[in-house]
Design goal:
The structure is a single chain. Strands 7-8-9-10-11-1-2-3-4-5-6-12 form a twelve-stranded mixed β-sheet. The protein has six helices and twelve strands. It is globular. The two termini are 24 Å apart. The protein has a single domain, classed as outer membrane lipoprotein receptor (LolB), chain A (Clam), CATH 2.50.20. By secondary structure, the protein is of the alpha+beta class. Mean pLDDT is 84; it is low at 1-30. Helix 2 (30-46) packs antiparallel against helix 6.
Length: 245
């Protein structure tokens, strides 16, 4: 996902994406309190529902595109990173306690860190790994429903922005902040569907221009969908190629 993920896991190795968001600020009242309540309701909803998402982000000359689908214990994600040096692709999947990844040569070398020879040998072949490994778990971060809520976390102060329409749905803008890789606060807006069900519809992050700044959006659709993830018929252990502690 999710937040330039998604954000998301493997992409962090390539784009130095947004650091973990700060905790929500306590002690708000009035309009800010209502905005924070809307934000919290949206996160609570996101943590319990399957969803499809599309993320687009830029950092300097690099452009990141991510699409994915989540469920409580399984999910899939495909990403493309385009820069002046190369185009890197990586597809990840999670089924229970096993993760799977495959990609093109550039993706395997630059994102996973495989050697040039390994990247050539295993181009577009599934590699598997057990979850519970701090380094490798980043590859499947964002593929479960609970991960979506984590990726949407912002810090206050919270405030309402203008009402708008996202994907044909009436939406209320909730403004907050996340921290970039340098610790600087970055303005972020979460658009929440109005009405009785607070579905997150889109999150937009804006940043001042610069080599390390990240700007982009994540758009959500098909909340409550049935997400089916097929187990690869054959895979090679990623740990045997790049053991991680």
């Amino acid at each position: 996902m999710r937040r330039f993920p998604v954000i998301v896991g493997a992409v962090t190795c390539t784009l130095a994406t947004t650091a973990g968001a700060l905790a929500a600020s306590p002690g708000v009242s009035g309009a800010a309190g209502n905005a924070q309540a809307t934000y919290k309701a949206a996160l609570a909803y996101a943590a319990t529902q399957n969803v499809h998402y599309v993320s687009n982000a830029t950092q300097g000359a690099a452009v990141l595109s991510v699409t994915g689908d989540t469920s409580p214990t399984a999910g899939t994600q495909s990403l493309i990173v385009k820069s002046t040096a190369a185009t890197e692709t990586l597809t990840t999947a999670l089924i229970g306690k096993t993760g799977y990844v495959r990609g093109n040569g550039a993706g395997l070398a630059h994102i996973l860190g495989l050697t040039a020879a390994e990247a050539t040998t295993y181009t577009n072949k599934w590699l598997s790994f057990p979850t519970g490994n701090q380094q490798l778990d980043a590859l499947v971060s964002g593929l479960r429903n609970k991960d979506v809520a984590a990726e949407l976390k912002m810090s206050g102060p919270f405030s309402f922005g203008p009402a708008t329409t996202i994907g044909g749905q009436a939406a209320q803008a909730v403004k907050g902040f996340i921290s970039d890789s340098t610790g600087k606060k970055v303005a972020t807006t979460l658009y929440v569907q109005t009405g009785s069900t607070p579905r997150p519809l889109q999150e937009v992050t804006t940043s001042t221009p610069g080599k390390t700044s990240v700007a982009g959006s994540v758009t959500f659709s098909n909340w409550g969908q049935q997400t089916h993830v097929s187990k690869p018929s054959h895979s090679v252990s990623l740990l045997s190629l790049a053991p991680a502690g």
